[in-house]
TrEMBL record:
The lineage of its organism: Bacteria, Pseudomonadati, Pseudomonadota, Candidatus Lambdaproteobacteria. InterPro entries: ADP-ribosyl_diN_reduct_hydro, ADP-ribosylglycohydrolase, Ribosyl_crysJ1, Ribosyl_crysJ1_sf. Its cofactor is Mg(2+). GO terms for molecular function: hydrolase activity; metal ion binding. Keywords: Hydrolase, Magnesium, Metal-binding. This is ADP-ribosyl-[dinitrogen reductase] hydrolase. The keyword Transport does not apply.
Length: 313
């Protein structure tokens, strides 16, 4: 099973970096779009918003339009640790997450909070495996590890699982992380030439609980349900916008489901596929942090994908 496609011959470094940026911006705009409808049922969304297709803020967190949530912020915190250390060090990731928690974020999941409190208390970097750790909170913050291991895929699994186990230790969370990372990496490297249909089939044969054929509607934050949701809408739409809008109107954990889809649909459709009206609404500081972090992660971890005198993205 080809879980991690090889770097394409010839490379096209600038195109790869642009697709990587599209994934990061894609997850952020998905977060900002989906936060408005989080925890609502589809009927409630339709009644309140009609078809929710613009970044308007509000929702249960009463956000300003363009504001992101813990999903995007934890990606930035993980990326910050990677850039500062120029390596993956789980203790540095824990400190970066802890610093983020001290910033009084607009939202934080209970499993994340408990894990980070444990890290603060006694330096625990691996939580005990727990049946209640099967949420999507470790997968949603995965993207910087995908970027940092593009040219060294052998590092992906140990780094991705280590950052997850700071707060979430569950076999389905681990499996979901590996699946999302493999699909995201393929989309970044190959764009719309990525064999995602076959990869999804291969992964769901290995982990049948993730099959989008089992998707029945609105769900909670269980990693299995989130993956079913995002794969269903990725498979059954033809654009980044349509995929995100369908997820944002499906109800349940809409912001995180959109973030997971953004990691795949963003690089698959590319920067040109991201709606300009959504990018304009995204917080300028967040967009700037994302653009800088992508550049730094490539220069530090993937120098072969940075051409001499290449423009910044």
């Amino acid at each position: 099973m080809n879980l991690f496609p090889r770097l394409p011959e010839g490379g096209e470094p600038t195109k790869i970096r642009r697709r990587a940026l599209a994934g990061y911006l894609g997850l952020a705009v998905g977060d900002a779009l989906g936060a408005t409808t989080e925890f609502l049922r589809p009927q409630e969304i339709s009644s309140r918003y009609g078809l929710h297709q613009d970044i308007t803020g509000g929702g249960w967190l009463n956000l300003k339009a363009g504001r992101v949530t813990d999903d995007t912020e934890m990606n930035l915190a993980l990326g910050k640790a990677l850039v500062n250390e120029r390596d993956f060090k789980v203790e540095a990731v824990g400190h970066s997450f802890s610093e983020w928690m001290s910033s009084k974020p607009v939202d934080i999941g209970s499993t994340v909070r408990q894990g980070l409190k444990s890290f603060r208390r006694d330096g625990t970097t691996v939580q005990e495996e727990n049946e209640y750790h099967g949420g999507n909170g470790a997968a949603m913050r995965l993207y910087p590890v995908v970027l940092a291991t593009l040219t060294r895929p052998e590092n992906f699994e140990p780094w991705a699982i280590a950052q997850a186990h700071l707060t979430h230790h569950h076999h389905e969370s681990d499996a979901g992380i590996l699946m999302i990372g493999a699909l995201s990496r393929a989309a970044i490297l190959l764009g719309q030439a990525a064999p995602l249909d076959q990869m999804i089939l291969d992964w769901t044969q290995r982990y049948p609980q993730f099959s989008p054929k089992l998707f029945k509607g609105s769900y909670d934050g269980y990693i299995v349900n989130s993956i079913r949701c995002m794969l269903y809408y990725f498979n059954n739409t033809g654009s980044f916008e349509d995929c995100m809008v369908k997820i944002a109107n499906a109800g349940g954990d809409t912001d995180t489901n959109a973030v997971l889809a953004g990691m795949i649909a963003g690089p698959f459709y590319g920067l040109e596929g991201l709606p300009s009206r959504w990018l304009k609404k995204l917080e300028k500081t967040v967009r700037g942090q994302i653009e800088t972090q992508v550049q730094d992660l490539f220069e530090i971890f993937n120098p072969d994908l940075v051409e001499p005198n290449s423009p910044t993205l």
